[in-house]
Amino acid sequence: MKHSKCIGLLLMMLVFTSMITAQVQFEAKASKTTLGVNERLRIDFEMNEDGDNFIPPNFNGFTVVGGPNQSVSHSWMNGVRSFNKTYSYFLQPNSQGTFTISQAEIEVEGVVYKTSPVKITVTKAIDIPKDPNNPDYIANNKIHVTANLSKSKPYLNEAITVEYRLYVAPRTSVSNWREVDNPEFNGFWSQNIDTKSREVFKGIYNGEEYRYVILRRAVLYPQKTGELKIEPLSLDVGIDVPTGQYDFFGRPLSRQVRKTISTGTQIVDVKALPLEGKPDNFTGAVGDFTFKTTTDKTSLDANESFNLNIEVTGNGNLKLFELPGINLPSSLEVYEPERGEKVNTYSSGMQGKISDIYTIVPQFKGKYPLPSINFSYFDPKTETYKTLSSQEIIIDVINGPLATENTVVEENATPKSKDNQKEFLDIKTETAFTSTEQTHLYKSTGFWNALLLPLIAIPLALIIRRKREDYLADVSGNKSRKASRLSRKYLGAAKRNLGDKVPFYLALEKALHNYLKAKLRIETSEMSKEKIVAILEERDVTKESISQFISILESCEQARYSPITTVTMQQDYDKAAETISSIDKEIN
């Protein structure tokens, strides 16, 4: 009897579990299963329970021109909850034939659900009815979004511009639009150009007159050779379509429909810089530059400092290469340079100047020639390398000790940190004398210290013990303090690894994560960008500081897949230190 009851209970649990499982629905719905090669298809992946870890199919035979777009809806009717979550894609067929859109996956409460495969038949191009009241006709023939590249085959690190335009035919009305799929510039250094003013221009599209507005503009510097993809920009456009009806005054009435249009994927074929004629001192500068070295003084005394300024001015990838270094004898004490940068980014690329300013201190009297320095760059207009040389500068040290025969003069002295100026400040040059006169023991300081020390030590030991117990009991605080120490440790490790990309960005990322652990007391597993932004906003951190922090995290992620110069690493390190300091001051 008991055995049959157990079996019945087990069956009821299985039935209940199957009922719960059966409630989850996950389906793929195509807007059409047969279409022409010149048409587009929308496919939605819908679920009635909130799921995680969505994995789309590979869409073989199609190009994704829009998506994924995500929408979520909740509703309550007669006390019953209704939920719907949808991932939408817009597809352009690549050729005729029959294709299968494979299964998509989603995870709901630890259980993986899959959609059924969807078969799509693509026929030859069809004639789209030229109905001026048909929204499909209007979207396909009267409204276009384009991505215009200034150059499709640039050299590595040569600037190109991509400009996105929305074209609208005459007598066609667009009421509004919004971006649903932003372009990605993987493999490029990119900078957006401000296009806030929506000025309307007149232009030609496919031989016909159109009006157009510039949606966005970006300058790109390719960071690797070969074919690089620029992902599409997709727009959700509101189109005013005539209804065929008229109002009381005889004016035509229209209704608004929404369509998604896209630029499609753009391909940039990046050429490698030529090996022939490449100078040994070439560090990656591409553009058109001038080069000079200057000093703030040429006559001074020994142990007096002067500045040597190495400067490059012009148009090109100014933020993406290193300036040439200097080789001076050790009798000239040289300190690490300070970077100067005045660079603006326009549609044609970066323009301005960068400089390294060295502080130099001569040790002895005499005349010191600062040798000529060479700077090489690649000019994409002439497709040749060019080398510029600075003038030799003579430094006259008027007063000071003379270098003796025993003075060792080393070439190629390494620039040192300015902190080294303090290395001899702790050496004492005066002798302090003390009296040897005998004193009585009970009058001595040692006697009274030995007498009073136990009386002071006992309560002090009790206080220390209590403090230690409180410290050990504060688990959360200890984690925070440990994370703070690790943050400083990894920030120091990043500084030591400047120039070595992988360990540098790994240490910098760990420093940022441990800083968040220390300040916000959240674990690494919880550190999504959305949660970091939400918590920092709750703590009244400014949007600018939050944006800076997230951009540094993104730099750490992107650096693994693209080449990075030491200059960029230094900038990222400085930005990280500055942002951490800013958040420290702002956080509540």
UniProtKB/TrEMBL annotation:
Signal peptide residues on this chain, from the entry's feature table: 1-22
Record-annotated membrane-spanning stretches: none
Highest taxon listed in the record's lineage: Bacteria
Protein name as it appears in the record: BatD protein
This protein's UniProt keywords: Signal
Organism, as annotated: Aurantibacter aestuarii
Pfam families in alphabetical order: BatD
InterPro entries given in the database record: BatD (IPR025738)
